[in-house]
């Protein structure tokens, strides 16, 4: 009896099958067009900001929108020297709010998400449902209550008035809970307990390294959200030296004398504020993992 082993040509994939595989892997025209349109829609405001930041006050309203100008360096000089360098204070404040708040939020979210995913305790499911409800509440609905809480504690017009409300994020806790539940093996944790490891050691040496890709995502989302946050600092702060970039750049247009210089200064300030976000995105890409097993092995 003849088998496929006796006929080597039977083991080779046919030309038609290889052609079908290639065709199936080719992206369709419609998805490509949609992606291109979406990319242009997202990049158009960035291109406008870059081009407008190079224009002098006279060129801003008299030249073509996407044409480069000749006033980029003079705009930068005015930005960093206005009001005795207040823009540098705004950058420092934004880093404090974004970096400090994101680190605290990641720590709290990792602990809460890990506990909700891997521990059995009364009321866990009810607590998780309440958490899901908190995800659905828009931040603007919580701004006024948060202000009254901070005012009652005497913390308004301080760094803590912006930092503390950002530490607890229902969406970040939800993401950490989902990631811990899917990536951290319960058998691995039980084996560590059998070996005599404490819960703190298990979390710090086993669970936390496995959760790093998810925590990086939480950190990035929270950092960008805090960096671009306007409403909370607007309610909590009245001292200009405590303003973040969003609120500081807003004052250039709302409290100025209407001259074009304020517009060009605000635009170049917006351009400068984009650079840390792009650098952070490029830096954190290396920590994202597509597979969950690699994190477990490295942990």
Number of domains: 1
Q: How far do the termini sit from each other? A: 53 Å
In quaternary terms, these chains amount to single chain
Look at the structure and give the mean pLDDT. Answer: 82
CATH homologous superfamily name?
MetI-like
Main sheet characteristics: none
Give the count of helical stretches.
16
CATH top level is: Mainly Alpha
How many strand units?
0
CATH topology: MetI-like fold
Catalogue the unreliable spans: 256-260, 290-299
Short description:
This protein has 299 residues and is mainly α. The protein has one domain (79-298): MetI-like fold (Orthogonal Bundle).
Protein described:
- The chain has 299 residues and is mainly α.
- The chain has helices at residues 15-25, 29-53, 57-60, 72-81, 86-118, 124-136, 139-152, 159-167, 170-183, 186-194, 199-210, 212-227, 231-236, 245-254, 260-284, 293-298.
- The chain has one domain (79-298): MetI-like (MetI-like fold), CATH 1.10.3720.10.
- The termini are far apart.
- The model is unreliable at 256-260 and 290-299 (pLDDT under 50).
Secondary structure: elements and pairs:
Blueprint: H1 15-25, H2 29-53, H3 57-60, H4 72-81, H5 86-118, H6 124-136, H7 139-152, H8 159-167, H9 170-183, H10 186-194, H11 199-210, H12 212-227, H13 231-236, H14 245-254, H15 260-284, H16 293-298
Helix pairs in contact: 2-15, 4-15, 5-8, 5-9, 5-12, 6-9, 9-12, 10-11, 14-15
């Amino acid at each position: 009896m003849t088998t496929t082993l006796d006929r080597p040509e039977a083991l080779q994939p046919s030309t038609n099958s290889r052609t079908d595989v290639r065709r199936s892997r080719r992206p369709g025209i419609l998805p490509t067009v949609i992606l291109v349109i979406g990319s242009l829609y997202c990049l158009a405001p960035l291109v406008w900001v870059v081009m407008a930041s190079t224009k002098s006050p006279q060129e801003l309203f008299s030249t073509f929108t996407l044409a480069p100008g000749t006033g980029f360096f003079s705009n930068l000089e005015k930005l960093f020297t206005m009001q005795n360098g207040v823009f540098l204070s705004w950058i420092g404040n934004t880093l404090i709010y974004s970096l400090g708040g994101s680190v605290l939020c990641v720590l709290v979210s990792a602990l809460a998400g890990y506990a909700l995913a891997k521990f059995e305790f009364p009321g866990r499911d009810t607590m998780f449902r309440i958490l899901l409800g908190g995800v659905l509440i828009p931040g603007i609905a919580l701004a006024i209550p948060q202000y009254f809480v901070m005012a009652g504690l005497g913390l308004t017009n301080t760094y803590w008035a912006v930092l503390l409300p950002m530490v607890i994020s229902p969406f970040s806790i939800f993401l950490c809970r989902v990631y811990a539940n899917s990536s951290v093996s319960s058998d691995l944790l039980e084996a560590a307990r059998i070996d005599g490891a404490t819960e703190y050691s298990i979390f710090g040496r086993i669970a936390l390294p496995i959760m790093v890709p998810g925590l990086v995502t939480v950190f990035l989302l929270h950092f960008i959200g805090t960096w671009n946050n306007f409403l909370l600092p607007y309610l909590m702060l009245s001292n200009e030296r405590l303003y973040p970039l969003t609120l500081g750049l807003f004052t250039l247009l709302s409290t100025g004398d209407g001259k074009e210089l304020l517009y060009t200064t605000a635009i170049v300030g917006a351009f400068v504020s984009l650079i840390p976000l792009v650098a952070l995105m490029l830096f954190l890409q290396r920590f994202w993992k597509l597979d969950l097993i690699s994190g477990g092995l490295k942990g």
